[in-house]
Amino acid sequence: MTMDPIAVGLLAALAGGAGGELGRQAWAGLGVLVRRPFRRADSGTIPEPVVSPGVLELDRLAEDPADPGRAQALSTALAARAVLDLEFSAGLETWHRQVQAVRTGDGDVNNHISGGSLYGPVLQGRDFSGLTFTIPQSSTPPSAVQDDGSVLPPVQD
Question: What is the residue range of 91's domain?
Answer without folding.
Answer: 8-99
